[in-house]
Write a structure and sequence with these properties.
Blueprint (H helix, E strand, L loop, with lengths): L2 H21 L3 H22 L12 H19 L1 E4 L2 E3 L16 H15 L5 H8 L5 E17 L2 E6 L5 E11 L2 E13 L5 E14 L4 H11 L3 H12 L11 E2 L2 E2 L32
Parallel strand pairs: 1-3
Antiparallel strand pairs: 1-2, 3-4, 3-5, 3-7, 5-6, 6-7, 8-9
Helix pairs in contact: 3-4, 3-5, 4-5, 4-7, 6-7
């Protein structure tokens, strides 16, 4: 190593020691700041994704009315386009309740209504809810699976299995869903389970896996882009708001004329008791409308 390189190395070591010595007294303060930032992030998460109060008695008459129509609409959307083969069924049938994680929830509808109110200044009422509902009808397709029961027979020391038609059962399994969550298909495998005493066995289809067809939340993203003219970044933000609102956010909503503006859960109105917005956001860009 040359003298020049040795000198550089020595200077580098001394410089590191000087920097460490200078920072060392402030390390506790740095840790406090980092912890504070972490706590603040949790607070913001709480503001944007909070669970609804379980006690409906604290809701105003208007809030309760909107919640109820959203519940009714969600139930309708989840049962209006269901089929076993080509036969239409107005009910959820899957033996494993696989629909539960794919259904549209009342809070998804509430959030979409709130976004329409904020972005397009539309009244939160039945007409708006019906309009939104047209884009989010859930489709669930099923097939029948016959559960076959066989019993062991022994004759001349030879074992055979005979099907017992009296114990034959039918179960319905979900093979395809297309909802606000995305378009999915479902795969199954045929299994045979032998009873503990070994005298009977049951053959049926068992759920194996699901596969996403296309993009997750595809219909929701398309709706947000076309209805609210949002860019990709804002679409992703609004998708998070809608999907993560599945516990609701309806408490302390403020009424302004016929409009329900914003609530204390996901969307917090900063000045309770005042509903007139005098500021046009100054020179800041509105996060949804992208206007100054």
């Amino acid at each position: 190593m040359s003298i020049k390189d040795k000198a550089k190395k020595a200077i580098g070591k001394k410089l590191k020691k000087v920097i460490i010595a200078a920072i060392k007294p402030f390390i506790p303060f740095i840790i406090i700041v980092l912890v504070a930032l972490l706590l603040i992030s949790y607070v913001f998460d709480g503001l944007f994704v909070s669970k609804a109060q379980a006690n409906d008695s604290e809701l105003s008459e208007t809030e309760m009315s909107i919640k109820n129509i959203c519940i009714e609409k969600a139930e309708e959307l989840n049962t209006c386009d269901n089929y076993v083969d080509k036969e239409k069924k107005n009910e959820l049938l899957d033996v494993n309740n696989l629909e539960n994680k794919k259904m549209i929830e009342w809070s998804h509808l509430y959030t979409l209504m709130t976004l329409e109110n904020l972005n397009n200044e539309k009244e939160m009422n039945q007409d708006l809810l019906n309009k939104i509902g047209e884009s989010f009808k859930s489709t669930f397709k099923y097939e029948k699976d016959t559960i076959k029961t066989e019993e062991k027979k022994v004759k001349d020391k030879k074992e055979t299995w005979e099907e017992n038609k009296d114990k034959e059962q039918t179960q319905y399994i979900l093979i395809e869903s297309n909802t606000i969550m995305g378009h999915y298909t479902y795969e199954y495998e045929t299994i045979t389970e032998v009873s503990e005493d070994g005298k009977s066995r049951v053959t049926k289809k068992k759920y194996k896996t699901e596969k996403l067809q296309g993009e997750q939340y595809e219909r929701l993203k398309k709706y947000l882009k076309t209805s609210m003219n949002l860019n990709d970044e804002d679409v992703e933000m609004c998708v998070d708001l809608v999907i993560n609102s599945d516990s609701g956010y309806y408490d302390d909503t403020i009424e302004n004329g016929n409009n329900i503006l914003i609530g204390k859960g996901m969307f917090t109105w900063p000045i309770p008791g005042y509903t007139n917005v005098t500021s046009k956001y100054g020179y800041r860009i509105h996060p949804i409308t992208r206007r100054i």
